[in-house]
Design a protein that fits this description.
Blueprint (H helix, E strand, L loop, with lengths): L2 H8 L4 H25 L1 H8 L3 H23 L5 H24 L5 H34 L6
Helix pairs in contact: 1-2, 2-3, 2-4, 2-6, 3-4, 5-6
Length: about 150
């Protein structure tokens, strides 16, 4: 992905701002998904073929994770280690989601469609965050942001 595409998606040419925006979008989507899982674990579980207790637990986890990512996004300069942990967690989520397709006993048709779709979304967040982090650290390292 080119820097032009990243800056276009983030609607900014400032790498730190792009990184913060991609983190914030991840936080909103993850937090909303977590709240929906927790609040509607029964109906959503039946729709996807997941036990309501499992979906409720996932919902609580995703809500807390989304809040943590939101906190990172709120920092003027998100800590590199924290952003790297988010990227790695997102990559792990993608792998675990895809593995669950093979290991899951009885997903419904909706579950079989939902799991790859959300894995693709989380994977896209990880990619955009990685590229933005790389651009942001390159800018800081070159001293370009120090003069602003």
């Amino acid at each position: 992905m080119s820097a032009t595409l990243i800056t276009g998606l983030a609607r900014t040419t400032a790498p730190q701002t792009a990184l913060r925006r991609f983190l914030a979008l991840d936080a909103v989507v993850t937090g909303a998904n977590g709240l929906a899982y927790a609040a509607f674990s029964g109906p959503a579980g039946r729709l996807l073929g997941i036990g309501p207790a499992t979906l409720f637990g996932l919902g609580l986890f995703l809500t807390a994770y989304g809040a943590g990512v939101g906190w990172l996004a709120s920092r003027r300069r998100p800590p590199v280690l924290g952003v790297q942990l988010v990227i790695e967690a997102n990559c792990a989520w993608v792998l675990l989601s895809l593995a669950s397709l093979l290991l899951w006993d009885a997903p419904t048709a909706a579950g079989l469609a939902w799991i790859p779709a959300q894995a693709l979304t989380v994977g896209a967040f990880a990619l955009l965050q990685q590229l933005s982090l790389r651009a942001a650290t390159a800018t800081v390292g070159s001293g370009a942001s120090r003069s602003q």
